[in-house]
């Protein structure tokens, strides 16, 4: 599609010959699905009216009275069909789509910790889109640095789970800019590690791209020495955080086949994880056992993988967001590695449904990729 100046407008979107959301098309589709016809004369028979009346309905729906719409939808059994017709009629009458409400201001003028708690509640309720919008809006409204950093953390997380790495990276770049400006090295380290985490979720990213980021982090850690980061209400980077992400990405690239399976490294990592879990927090134990399960899969030790996965549940982190989605993906990977392809596909489809319900689009993409590979192996 060309703009007035003659230049091609690639943002115009697909130009449809017939609008599928128009009143006439919505009515015809509903009658096709329920009565097997979309022709005016056949619809007229169902309604008990002349064909000319149906033509009139379609030519000027904005002139129809509520009684006419009520008579029309009374011949349809399915609620979703009736709702679509009412929606299309309202749009014809007023030019507004009642189901396409624009998001107005989500916060008041006063941004406080109560605002942050509201966003956390939205995340737990899987209202991630709203949580991301609200966090960004609140960030722009407050001058409190601590609140701003907490809000940026939540916006980044929501976009990552929505599987929108571009938006997530934009937020992380803001975190990094502010950290450099304020001379906050630990916060800058956190930004780099978040950057690596986002990129590692993209299948086309190469190991050397992630390693370059880790190299920057090591340089920054040398600047602060052995001193651990201070306690903070927002995310700060640390040596431990770097180690965990390094392990996770190395295992990830082995799973993808991007790099060779380094058995010695995997064995050493398992030994380190076993030593660390006894003194780590519940959240850290959950992540460690999940990683151990994935390592055992790579080593062909499926019984041990199942044991590690069970221990991740016993770590007490079942209330963590997306715990079931992450664990379901790993369990499906175990089934697939054992050769139970059909069972794995069936199980992962259940995990896929769970991801859709919780709006966890990031893990949904990973699950669907696993299913695609398994289905492909059956050709």
Main traits of this protein?
mainly alpha, 434 Repressor (Amino-terminal Domain), Serine Threonine Protein Phosphatase 5, Tetratricopeptide repeat
What can you tell me about this protein's structure?
With 379 residues, the chain is mainly alpha-helical. Among the domains are: 23-94, 434 Repressor (Amino-terminal Domain); 112-246, Serine Threonine Protein Phosphatase 5, Tetratricopeptide repeat (Alpha Horseshoe). The chain has helices at 23-35, 40-47, 51-59, 66-73, 79-94, 113-124, 128-141, 145-161, 165-182, 185-200, 207-224, 239-256, 263-277, 282-298, 302-314, 323-337, 341-357, 361-377. It starts with 22 loop residues before the first helix and ends with a helix. The mean pLDDT is 89.
């Amino acid at each position: 599609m060309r703009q007035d100046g003659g230049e091609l407008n690639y943002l115009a979107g697909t130009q449809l010959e017939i609008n599928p959301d128009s009143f006439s098309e919505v009515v015809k589709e509903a009658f096709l699905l329920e009565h097997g016809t979309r022709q005016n004369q056949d619809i007229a028979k169902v309604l008990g009216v002349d064909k000319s009346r149906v033509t009139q309905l379609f030519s000027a729906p904005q002139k129809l009275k509520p009684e006419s719409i009520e008579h029309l939808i009374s011949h349809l059994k399915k609620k979703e069909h009736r709702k679509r017709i009412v929606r299309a009629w309202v749009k014809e009458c007023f030019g507004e789509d009642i189901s396409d409400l624009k998001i107005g201001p989500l916060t008041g003028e006063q941004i406080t910790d109560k605002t942050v708690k509201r966003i956390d509640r939205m995340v737990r309720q899987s209202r991630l889109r709203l949580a991301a919008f609200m966090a960004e809006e609140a960030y722009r409204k407050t001058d409190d640095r601590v609140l701003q950093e907490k809000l940026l953390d939540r916006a980044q997380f929501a976009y990552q789970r929505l599987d929108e790495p571009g938006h997530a990276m934009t937020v992380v770049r803001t975190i990094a800019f502010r950290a450099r400006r304020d001379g906050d090295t630990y916060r800058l380290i956190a930004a780099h590690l978040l950057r690596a985490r986002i990129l590692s979720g993209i299948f086309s990213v190469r190991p050397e791209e992630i390693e370059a980021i880790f190299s920057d982090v090591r340089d920054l850690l040398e600047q602060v020495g052995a001193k651990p980061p201070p306690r903070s209400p927002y995310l700060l980077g640390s040596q431990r955080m770097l180690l965990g992400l390094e392990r996770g990405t190395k295992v990830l690239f082995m799973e993808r086949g991007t790099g060779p399976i380094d058995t010695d490294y995997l064995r050493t990592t398992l030994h380190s994880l076993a030593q660390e879990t006894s003194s780590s927090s519940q959240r850290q134990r959950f992540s460690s056992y999940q990683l151990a399960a994935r390592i055992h899969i790579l080593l062909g030790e499926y019984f041990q993988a199942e044991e590690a996965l069970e221990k991740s549940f016993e770590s007490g982190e079942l209330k963590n967001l997306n715990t079931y989605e992450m664990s379901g993906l790993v369990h499906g990977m175990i089934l697939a590695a054992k050769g139970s392809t059909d069972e794995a596909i069936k199980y992962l489809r259940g995990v896929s449904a769970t991801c859709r319900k919780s709006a966890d689009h990031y893990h949904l993409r990973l699950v669907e990729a696993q299913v695609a590979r398994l289905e492909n192996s059956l050709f």
